[in-house]
Amino acid sequence: MGRHGKSQHQKRARAAAQLRALEAYASAPHSFVFARGPAGPGVRQLSLDVRRVMEPYTASSLQVRRRNSLKDCVAVAGPLGVSHFLIFSKTEKNVTFRLIRLPGGPTLTFRVTKYSLVRDVVSSLRRHRMHEQQFSHPPLLVLNGFGPHGLHVKLTASVFQNMFPSINVHKVNLNCVKRCLLLSYDPDSQELQFRHYSLKVVPVGASRGMKKLLQEKFPDMSRLEDVSELLATGAGLSESEAEPDGEHNVTELPQAYAGRGNMKAEQSAVRLTEIGPRITMQLIKIQEGLGDGSVLYHGLVHKSEEELKATLATRQQKLLLKAERRGRQEQDIKRKEEQREAHRKRSLEGMQRAEAPSVDQGNGDSEAEDPGQPDGGAHVSDEEEDEAEYFRQAVGEEPDEGLLSPPC
């Protein structure tokens, strides 16, 4: 009989594959996507939709309460390996989107001018294509229009690129590319378009009837006498099922792709279906650190060199004052600790003295009054008063001092 189970080589290969998968997952950038403040139901749903875009390298069940500050989120993000924060908030006038790179920044602040939720985008489509397997791999990031338009545009593109794992075009598995995230920058309006698409690859050069036969769902041929009618004329198929393909989306596949008819070195068409959300935003400012550093770029406020120098000097002064206050606080803490330690030592010494037995010196007589001795002082005073009164009546004079005192 043959051996049952897996060989040692298979077990080692599987363990090595699992280790590589864990290392790849740990090295990939991770993110927290959440809404802060009184954002409202629309903005909160937008944050959930963007969280869906960032799958699978994001916290899907993240809950941030009102009492949680940004420092709390940063403290939690460190041990989990989170590299980016995507924060949505709402004021009376605008919807704000902040993109923070951990742990040292920078912080990019955008003003959201328009947005559409996933349910709005899907409801506007006649046929949408979205399933759970698409979110088991990160989307393919495509940047458009991020040319030589300034350092702030270059920095924005770099931050967005670092949000997703890098792709090696020579080793990538095409079956892992199921979604596409398109970021398009318009230098005239300085607006950034955020679009999320589902990716589908279909073979070209076949009739509509042949494409129907290649699909998983078999077409209805109950009214046909022979299969050749379907292949020759495409009978029973609507014109809306024929999607136009051309040079803009037809390519030669370097490897086989999931789906019937997508063979290696064959012509196939890449089709995109928008699945949302859809965001139009404008870069407002870029700051150092986690939103509390100096402003590197501001889209609405432009300062001269003198104003920038004055602002930098003011900030340096504030940092020096802060460092000075921190030094005084550390000195006060050290002084109070020394005082507490000295007080503790004195308390221990007093407790030791109280526990030690008292030793009487000399003859052992105590100067304290004996509570058992009868109280005779009042009686002696009454007798002296009676004798003095008798002396006055008999002699007619006051007695001399010490004449009537009792003998020792």
Secondary structure topology:
Elements: H1 8-27, E1 30-35, H2 40-53, H3 70-80, E2 82-90, E3 95-101, E4 107-116, H4 118-124, E5 140-144, H5 151-161, E6 179-186, E7 191-203, H6 208-214, H7 227-233, E8 250-252, E9 267-274, E10 278-287, E11 295-298, H8 305-355, H9 377-395
Parallel strand pairs: 1-2, 5-6
Antiparallel strand pairs: 2-3, 3-4, 4-10, 6-7, 7-9, 7-10, 8-9, 10-11
Q: Would you identify the regions where 5 or more consecutive residues have pLDDT less than 50? A: 235-242
- Number of DSSP helical runs: 9
Shape category: elongated
Average pLDDT rating: 82
CATH architecture of the domain at 13-221 and 246-298: 3-Layer(aba) Sandwich
* CATH homologous superfamily annotation of the domain at 13-221 and 246-298: Brix domain
Number of E strands: 11
Q: What string, H for helix and E for strand, traces the elements in order?
A: HEHHEEEHEHEEHHEEEEHH
Sheet with the most strands, sense and barrel status:
11 strands, mixed
Could you say what the CATH topology of the domain at 13-221 and 246-298 is called?
A: Rossmann fold
Structural class: alpha+beta
Through-space gap between termini: 128 Å
What's the Cα radius of gyration?
A: 44 Å
CATH class identity of the domain at 13-221 and 246-298: Alpha Beta
DSSP strand (E) fraction? 15-25%
Helix coverage percent: 25-40%
Biased composition (Basic and acidic residues): 323-341
GO molecular function: rRNA binding
Region (Disordered): 323-408
Protein name: Suppressor of SWI4 1 homolog isoform X3
